[in-house]
Amino acid sequence: GDxxxxxxxxxxxxxxxxxxxxLVAELRTNAEPAAAAPQQEDMEGTRRVLVxxxxxxxxxxxxxxxxxxxxxxxxxxxxxxxxxxxxxxxPARKQEAAPPAAKPxxxxxxxxxxxxxxxKAAPVPQLIxxxxxxxxxxxxxxxxxxxVSGSHNRFAHAAAxxxxxxxxxxxxxxxxxxxxxxxxxxxxxxxxxxxxxxIGQNNIFVTDGIKLSxxxxxxxxxxxxxxxxxxxxxVKVLIIDDIHLLMLTETNRKHITQWLxxxxxxxxxxxxxxxxxxxxxxxLEEAAGFQFTQGWMVDLKPPASQxxxxxxxxxxxxxxxxxxxxxxxxxxxxxxxPFGEAIRTLASMKKLEKFTVNAMNPATxxxxxxxxxxxxxxxxxxxxxxxEYADAAQWxxxxxxxxxxxxxxxxxxxxxxxxxxxxRIHKRSEEMGLKLQWQQxxxxxxxxxxxxxxxxxxxxxxxxxxxxxxxxxGPQPTSALGAQEAEFRHITLKILDSFLVKGxxxxxxxxxxxxxxTKILMDLL
Length: 525
Fold this sequence. Notes:
This protein is of the alpha/beta class. It has helices at about 15-30, 125-130, 155-165, 185-200, 210-220, 225-235, 255-265, 280-290, 305-320, 325-335, 340-355, 365-375, 385-395, 415-430, 455-465, 485-500, 515-525, and strands at about 40-45, 45-50, 175, 205-210, 235-240, 270-275, 295-300, 405-410, 440-445, 470-475, 500-505.
């Protein structure tokens, strides 16, 4: 529990490997003769260079200091208009600190945000202490070179380039907003890479709403807030993805407010993104004491069909996925799958491919995707027979001794269905030859008619119980959350991702679908 750094592993591509080999060869000719040439090892597509000569081995750089970690903030009960399910967070009434699971956030009273007070921070689970990181790692493939520009993002592209050329001058703060799948996160990383080449990566701080709010809580609890404040005073650009997920508490509010206003007073650049439009951020602005809408605001639209195909083709090429134009259209284009969801699905498909690589008749990528999506699978929405429920009730998952520690959230009134889902996951793993065992660390109910705070409850509860995977059963279609399941799902999986917890989702209509359970297994493994 004393580690204060995170190591991110990325796939080493062939062109990078060639440059490294060239550099090693150059170093060897300038050094004493080496005993052996570098050797390459290829294991499951990941290559690494083994340098046998101690003279040419690079010294490991000390890990960049990160603030130690501590308690996440308690549930914030956000105030919103009846529309979005997870609004811009505002402080809720002051209340006694308690684990979020014990008392889920309630719908806030009809009062002005100014009359509310921040909540107290909840005790921090050990899991967060081990692995929390305030900064986001940059994604190498998300650059301006790979960003497809068109009518859907032309103004955002121009504003982003202006920020890269002259940070803190004109478009400050820059607010980029749009529905999921329009490229906000790609812009965040592209701007970061563009700025790093001109002002240096050490002058840029990239985070998101969840990581920043919890990171400040953790730093305060562990006496490291001074170090984090020093970092904020040194950097010249602050980039916050998903600002609508910023959770303000009585502990972190003063620090975040001070940093934001200091950046503006010193003409240092701020870039934020939001799923919600500017007018929906007013409550968050009042709570934070900062106007995110005082600068330049640009919206991102869903791309046209042809542009969507072009972007998808890039994704397929990067992941080495082979689909015909007709298959691409049927699986993604006609269904208007957001790019984030498409990436998740393709990554799960690549995992599934590894399990079928030794088959006598290996499946095509289109067939593997259909095994995950179940588009041609009959009888998905059929009711579950009572005898199958009875069989599921008799089965129990392993209690201990497993690396996999999974939990499940189910809608209120669907306890029987949750047991059925767990049993089907077990059966599906056996059918696929995985023979998977996992420890069921919790089985927790949520209220599908509660529009506020459920995604935060999921993230907090999973972390407190040290789960490394969470299965969420989608709400009943007739419930309040059921009408907004796509948005609910997107935000919940985003929050779990910030906790470094794998998330899997199953809709209530998919309970008899083999494909749904195959995808759950691939998402969690």
